[in-house]
């Protein structure tokens, strides 16, 4: 039997600002725009030029912060983080930004991604006397930075980056400097903008829109940015490499109003839907999307086929996202509470249900059942991404093949499991065609390892969790 363990979970969200008198407040609003990337913990660290001030906690941003906290978060610069637990699990000790204090200087670190060689680095650090306070691989970066000794912070960070491998978009704040970095493959999204004279950095450009900042550019793969009172300077800490931005950012994670690789996410998802219609056409009466991340693809599918798009499923806005529920039984109940079919739209109709992905198949099975219980005569499922057959080791919470229905069953078997009348997925070629503007541009590549098994970095044996066995 397929392991019903976890679903497809977001990564984390990073926000930073330098040179604003209300740095903490701006970070708070920026994190609100990134809340979809992590709901398990949130934190903000500020600097007033002399010391770091921190407040963080478990839960949503509104649960963690109140008006009282901002009187203590003084300073002209701040970094913030919203977290979904991947490596290291949950718990307050793993909520970021992580703060490290020393006699020479202090630093706070916020990180999005996973280090594939974290286990080896932890073993080396512990053998040299380091005591790790968290189970997060983010702490490894801090220990490597401090191990360089009494050298300029920029040099210490550069040295540390030469030792870590995997996916990382990070911000490091000291009393007098802000450092921004992206891994050599650019697996995680990270952009920089301006808010008046202030510099702003965020995992997604939608955070700029919320605070009124202007987008300037994406942080380049292998780039280290240093911001202080002298302004901004940048350098490449590695040789330029072909970018492999996570394709699931386009498929599912990012908000539709964000831009990645200079292309709008909503527009990319519409193109996926159109391409899916070309690859897997079907005769039907209505097209509907699973709210919210699949709506754009469903609209594209409708436009390409001429089948009317209808609101066949309604999302209850006051129910938490089902993937954060701790047991399969509660996940099942969460789906029932989360979505309702619109009987007047689907009754007596052949319905095309467009979704962004299938991980375990549990949610898809329940939605197909909901539509048929509401009177749909046929339900044809179309997935606007290829089958997820391989674990991700870069920050998405799919760690074993046993969790992935497409890794254990054929498409026809999956169709029977979810109860659909037909099932089809977008091809890997179709996905790349939909989201890559120019394949010859080095910065515009994507990672499709979860679909193809072709990982852009070395994967260490102790990174791989053994497959589920009955």
TrEMBL record:
Residues given in the record as [4Fe-4S] cluster binding sites: 246, 392, 447, 450
For molecular function, the Gene Ontology terms on record are: amidophosphoribosyltransferase activity
Q: In which pathway does it act?
A: Purine metabolism; IMP biosynthesis via de novo pathway; N(1)-(5-phospho-D-ribosyl)glycinamide from 5-phospho-alpha-D-ribose 1-diphosphate: step 1/2
Which annotated residues bind Mg(2+)? 293, 355-356
As its record notes, the protein acts as a catalyst of: 5-phospho-beta-D-ribosylamine + L-glutamate + diphosphate = 5-phospho-alpha-D-ribose 1-diphosphate + L-glutamine + H2O
**The organism sits in which domain of life?**
Bacteria
Q: Name one Pfam family in it.
A: GATase_6
Q: Which cofactor does it need?
A: [4Fe-4S] cluster; Mg(2+)
EC number(s) of the enzyme? 2.4.2.14
Q: Does the keyword Transferase apply?
A: yes
Q: Which family does it belong to?
A: In the C-terminal section; belongs to the purine/pyrimidine phosphoribosyltransferase family.
Q: Report the NCBIfam families cross-referenced here.
A: purF
Provide the protein name: Amidophosphoribosyltransferase
- The species is Gracilibacillus caseinilyticus
Gene name on record?
Answer: purF
């Amino acid at each position: 039997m397929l392991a019903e363990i976890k679903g497809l979970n977001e990564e984390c969200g990073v926000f930073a600002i330098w040179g604003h008198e209300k740095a903490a407040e701006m970070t708070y609003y920026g994190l609100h725009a990134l809340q979809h990337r992590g709901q398990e913990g949130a934190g903000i660290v500020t600097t007033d030029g002399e010391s770091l001030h921190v407040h963080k906690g478990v839960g949503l941003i509104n649960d963690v912060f109140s008006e009282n906290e901002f009187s203590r978060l003084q300073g002209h610069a701040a970094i913030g983080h919203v977290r979904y637990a991947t490596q290291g699990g949950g718990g307050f000790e793993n909520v970021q930004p992580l703060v490290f204090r020393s006699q020479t200087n202090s630093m706070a670190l916020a990180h999005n991604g996973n280090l594939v060689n974290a286990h080896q680095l932890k073993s080396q650090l512990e053998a040299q006397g380091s005591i790790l306070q968290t189970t997060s691989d983010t702490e490894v970066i801090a220990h490597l930075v401090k191990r360089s000794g009494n050298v300029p912070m920029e040099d210490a960070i550069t040295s540390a980056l030469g030792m870590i491998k995997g996916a990382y978009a990070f911000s490091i704040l000291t009393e007098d400097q802000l450092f921004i970095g992206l891994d050599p493959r650019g697996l995680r999204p990270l952009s920089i903008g301006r808010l008046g004279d202030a510099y702003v950095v965020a995992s997604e450009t939608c955070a700029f829109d919320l605070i009124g900042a202007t987008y300037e550019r994406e942080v380049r793969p292998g780039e280290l940015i240093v911001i202080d009172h002298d302004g901004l300077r940048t350098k490449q800490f590695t040789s330029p490499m072909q970018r492999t931005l996570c394709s699931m950012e386009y498929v599912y994670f990012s908000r539709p109003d964000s831009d990645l690789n200079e292309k709008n996410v909503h527009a990319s998802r519409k193109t996926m839907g159109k391409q899916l219609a070309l690859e897997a056409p079907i005769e039907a009466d209505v097209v509907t999307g699973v709210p919210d991340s699949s709506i754009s693809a469903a609209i594209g599918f409708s436009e390409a086929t001429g089948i009317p798009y209808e609101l066949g499923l309604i999302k209850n806005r006051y129910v938490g996202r089902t993937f954060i529920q701790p047991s399969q039984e509660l996940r099942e109940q969460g789906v029932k509470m989360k979505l309702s079919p619109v009987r007047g739209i689907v009754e007596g109709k052949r319905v095309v249900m467009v979704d962004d992905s299938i991980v375990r198949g549990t949610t898809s099975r329940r939605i197909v059942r909901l539509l048929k219980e509401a009177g749909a005569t046929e339900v044809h499922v179309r997935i606007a991404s290829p089958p997820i057959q391989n674990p991700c080791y870069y920050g998405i919470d799919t760690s074993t093949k046993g969790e992935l229905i497409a890794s254990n069953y054929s498409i026809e078997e999956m169709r029977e499991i979810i109860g659909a009348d037909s099932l089809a997925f977008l091809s890997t070629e179709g996905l790349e065609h939909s989201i890559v503007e120019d394949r010859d541009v080095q910065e515009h590549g994507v990672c499709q390892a979860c679909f193809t098994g072709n990982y852009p970095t070395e994967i260490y044996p102790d990174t791989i969790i053994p497959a589920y066995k009955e």
